[in-house]
Amino acid sequence: MFFGHGEPSKFDKDHEDLLVGIAGQAATAIDNARLYRAAEREIAERRRAESALQTLNATLERRILDALAEQAETEARLHQAQKMEAVGRLTGGVAHDFNNLLQVISGNLQLLTKDVAGSARAEQRVRNALAGVSRGSQLASQLLAFGRRQPLAPKVINVGRLIRTWDDMLKQALGEAIEVETIIAGGLWNTIVDPVQVETAILNLAINARDAMEGRGKLTIEAGNASIDDAYAARHEDVNPGHYLMLAITDTGCGMPSDVLARVFEPFFTTKPEGQGTGLGLSMVFGFVKQSGGHIKIYSEPGQGTTVRIYLPRTQEREDLAADTETGPITGGSETILVVEDDEEVRRTAADILADLGYRVLKAKDADSALAIVESGVPIDVLFTDVVMPGSLRSPELARKAKERIPDIAVLFTSGYTDNAIVHGGKLDPGVHLLSKPYSREALARKLRHLIRNQQQRGAVSRMNTRAERTLSADPLPGRLRVLLVEDDALIRVSTFDMLETLGHDVSEASNANDALAMVLTSKFDVLLTDISLPGVSGSELAVQAVALAPSLKVIFATGYDQVRGYEATAVLLRKPFTEEHLAVALRNAIGL
Ligand SMILES: Nc1ncnc2c1ncn2[C@@H]1O[C@H](COP(=O)(O)OP(=O)(O)O)[C@@H](O)[C@H]1O
Ligand SMILES: [Mg+2]
Q1: How confident is the model at residue 326 (pLDDT cuts 50, 70, 90)?
Q2: How far out from the chain centre does Cα 129 lie?
Q3: Out of 364-368, 410-414, 491-495, least confident range
Q4: Which helix H or strand E contains 361, and what residues bound it?
Q5: For ligand 1, what atom is nearest to the CA of residue 207?
Q6: CA 269, CA 146: separation in Å to the nearest integer?
Q7: Which of 146, 312, 462, 497 lies at a CB distance of 3.0 to 4.6 Å from 294, suitable for a disulfide?
Q8: Residue 157, SS3 per DSSP
Q9: pLDDT top residue among 372 and 19
Q10: What number of CA atoms fall less than 13 Å from residue 245's CA on the CB side?
Q11: Residue-wise burial string across 245-279, b where 16 or more C-beta atoms lie within 10 A, e elsewhere
Q12: In this predicted structure, what is the pLDDT of residue 174?
């Protein structure tokens, strides 16, 4: 670097050194700056990496927490579902036994009503007791509903159409100050469900809404088509994806905090004061919806009102508009009914009610005994059997075998609750009729007439081609007779006893000749009806001795043997298996001897 001409001066030299120094420093500075910037970049990069790592960690953590929460929720749901299941089983079982007791009480009270007719005080007491029974049976049916064991009579219905017909009932139940709006979507799908129970459910929800709104507000009922997708189904216990009919009931009431919401389906859970809430409303709705293959969900927040959504499975079938004919006076009949029931008191009460209605009644204490009666060849029009019984033969199997033997037989099941033997997916098998306990005399009478009528219509055609079963006409019965029945086979004795009683006679029974003779000594009888082959002393020997003791005694021999000789002049022969008509004819002939 030169500033002039010629030799560089000292100044120049110094100056140059200085400049070189400056340049060097500048270069270093530049290098430093470069280094600094690189470091700065590196730091920034590291910071970015660190923050990315942090974000990643946080996301991971969140994900893990979410997963844990979800798992806890699933477990809680499962736990809740299991709890409800267990409580349901317990309640269902209790209600079943409870119903059997009520059946005995109500049956006897109904019979008693007739006995005390004329005494106003006694009639009133019986009425009070019956009112108690009906409250008890209401409670039992609510518990059965929760336990998913109430007998349902599902029909294909259009819920929209039904809601419209219930509008007035709802308005009445809710009072003036509650506005009711119904919104029913067009093209609503049909569902298959028990319409009576849908009505009960809506009424229960509406009453809850009324209570939550303290009598003032707006209730909205919506019906629409809905699909439950896989994701929703996965998030809820016991829900299948698919097409549903959705029913939503919304109120503008107080709503519920989450701890209440978590418990509303529990039976007897109520926040209402003693005497105002039973805590069974939502339990029933829950049980009914589940039993019908549906789903229920409640959305509620304090101060925000409540929406209850019910999903009922869609059906492609057409609506079943057949009218019910469950009105008019009740009638009895003269058909033969075989009552099969293990509970002795329930059996006797049922038999008494049936006999009172004019039916001929046969009784059996379990399915095996019933089958023996069926196979004895006695004509039976209706098999009326308890669903749940001890013994090796199950009641549906008994029904099947009875139908094989007597194709025209009608079958009516009765049960304190329905078990899977005859109910599948909450529906009765086709052709199966069920009368739930406790039943009233009226309900039993109606159900039987309905069944017998159906059966007769069905049987009319087929009967035209088969040999007429009953060739003997039942002539007017002889008056009330005192009959001594001697038979060693307990089942035949029981059914013959019942037939004689149904024919209006006084019956005493003995299982062997010695007991029978003792009875002839102490009491007076018009007719001795005895089996021929008895253990020890035979029926024919018995007859000789009995007539010697009581010369006016008429004798009927019941026998399974075709060849019986020598008794024609002194006794009447009744061939086994015999019907009630045969028996009536034999009695008349014996009296005429
Ligand atoms: N629509 C509603 N709004 C607010 N709370 C409700 C509603 N429906 C039910 N609940 C709450 O759920 C409880 C249980 O209801 P439910 O089973 O019908 O029995 P109950 O009505 O006899 O109390 C009620 O006591 C109430 O606390
Ligand atoms: Mg309620």
Answers
A1: low
A2: 26
A3: 491-495
A4: strand 360-364
A5: 21
A6: 13
A7: 312
A8: strand
A9: 372
A10: 26
A11: bbbbbbbbbbbbeeeebeebbbbebbeeeeeeeeb
A12: 85
Residue 440 has which token pair? 């009233």
Ligand in nearest proximity to the CA of 306: 1
- Nearest residue (by CA) to ligand 1, atom 24, is 270
Rounded Cα gap, residues 414 and 506, in angstroms: 30
Q: What is the mean pLDDT of the chain?
A: 83
HEC string of 411-480 equals EEEEECCCCCCCEECCEECCCCEEEECCCCHHHHHHHHHHHHHHHHHHHHHHHHHCCCCCCCCCCCCCCC
Which tokens go with 341?
């029931």
- Nearest atom (ligand 1) to Cα of 276: 22
- CA distances in angstroms from 533 to 122, 226, 382, listed in the order given: 49, 72, 31
Q: pLDDT tens digits, residue range 381-408? A: 999 998 878 888 888 889 888 988 888 8
346-356 pLDDT per residue, tens: 899 899 999 98
Assessment of whether the complete model's pTM goes beyond 0.70: no
Q: Residue 265 and residue 145: Cα distance in Å, rounded?
A: 12
Is the link from the previous residue into 577 a cis peptide, with omega within 30 of 0?
Answer: yes
Which residue has a Cα nearest atom 21 of ligand 1? 277
Going by alpha carbons, the residue nearest to atom 7 of ligand 1 is: 208
Of all residues in the chain, the percent with pLDDT exceeding 70 is 89
Residue type, 488: D
Give me ligand 2 centre to Cα 309, in Å.
16
Q: Which of 332, 287, 331 is nearest to 310 (CA)?
A: 287
Ligand 1 close to Cβ of residue 260 (< 6 A): yes
Degrees to nearest 5, angle at CA 182 with 176 and 183: 155
Task: Decide: helix, strand or coil at residue 228.
Answer: strand
Select, from the ranges 103-107, 232-236, 319-323, the one with the highest average predicted confidence (pLDDT).
232-236
- The 3 state secondary structure assigned to 470-511 is CCCCCCCCCCCCEEEEECCCHHHHHHHHHHHHHCCCEEEEEC
Scan for tokens 């119904």, then name that residue. Answer: 182
Determine if ligand 1 sits within 6 Å of the CB of residue 208.
Answer: yes
Cβ atoms of 111 and 352 closer than 8 Å: yes
What does the alpha-carbon distance between residue 314 and residue 244 come to, in Å, rounded to a whole number? 5
Query: Residue 284 CA: which ligand 1 atom is closest?
Result: 17
Backbone angles phi, psi at 435, to 5 degrees: -120, 120
Ligand 1 centre to CA of 296 (Å) is 15
Structure tokens at 380: 């039976």
CA of 437 to the centre of ligand 2 (A): 24
What share of the chain has pLDDT > 90, as a percent? 30
Phi-psi region of 148 (alpha: psi -120 to 50; beta: other; left: phi over 0): left
Q: Are 549 and 518 in contact (CB under 8 A)?
A: no
For residue 283, give the ligand nearest its CA: 1
| Structure tokens given for 218 | 């707006």
68 token code pair:
């844990």
Tell me which residue has its CA closest to atom 12 in ligand 1. Answer: 264
Token output for 325: 């004919």
